[in-house]
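Field reference: sequence -> structure
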Amino acid sequence: MPDAPAIDDITTALEAWAPPGSAQDYDNVGLQVGDASRSVTSAVLALDATPAVLAEAKAHDAELVVTHHPLLFRPLDGVTADGYVSNLALQFAEAGIGLYSIHTNLDAAPEGVSFALAERLGLTDVGFLDGFADTLYKLAVFVPEDAFDEVRRALADAGAGRIGDYEACAFASEGTGFFKPGAGADPHIGTAGGDVESAHERKLEVEVARWNLSSVMAALQEAHPYEEVAHDLYPVKQKNSRAGLGALGHLEAPMPLSAFLDRVATRLDAGSLRYAGDPDATVERVAVCGGAGSDFIGTARGAGADAYVTADVKYHEFFETLGRDGTPQMALVDPGHYETEALTEALLRDRLREAFPQVDWHRTDTTTSPMRTFVPAGDAGTVSS
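Structure field:
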């Protein structure tokens, strides 16, 4: 059995899947409490950090808790026993238990939260609902023939050239480069202060995501033999095929909306649903977005979805599904924020068990949502959790 990994080993593996740079600007992801060098033999996975989750971590002698939602979402004035967030952060620190959060970067990752939601609802042929725009760059660098393969491999290893399901994608064209070394230069070819030199070079072009840019540029400087590396870097105005939000797929067979609503409620263990749509309408093409995804109602409609499943939909946003005559053009289904994201716990457990089998991974037994649904039953009422 391999040695116990450090927290840093675990977070590095998670961030290779869901780079922190792909998180939304408002988010706060990463290690929130703890020592990244501490070894981990046991860990708890939960949607939220709560006192009950911390108690579970202590019961399992866990060194780490991984959550989807960050506890420290906004800056604290101090870490004291005053206030829910501050007090809980203090308890984690005092217990010596690390707390790591992987939030909107996991929403944006391939096979991330929305993909897991799509799978739970039985969708096939699943892809991103909306790819990220303005996150891609094209790097073009001029490399001497004898160093080309080394530079190309270094850039690929650093994350360049990832397009869809393909890696190490690159394009090369041949040409001749000219330069005159200055008196203080240390040229790869020629001598300082010498004559104009020429070299047979290849122009290497690769696509780079914004969050891989620093590591790729560092790899370029390390692998390239020239003292001054001639390169161009410019934004690419197309959507990223390896990062986005939401997911879009198809049911294995069309069904009426009424039956689809029953499927959503059952498979997500939702005590109730809010929805807009004709119960008799046929549903086959379905869009989903775990958590608060009402910003993509128009995107789902534009993608031809018969139904869109997400959460935290406001009253007036349900009107966005209606046509000019007031009839629903797409069903909009809101099972609840927790209900669309609780499966993140199993998603993380399965991924981390495969990567680190020597760690005991425990999915929380706690329903971390503070929200409950009241369902009237005659004169008395029942409370559903």
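Note: The chain has a mean pLDDT of 95.
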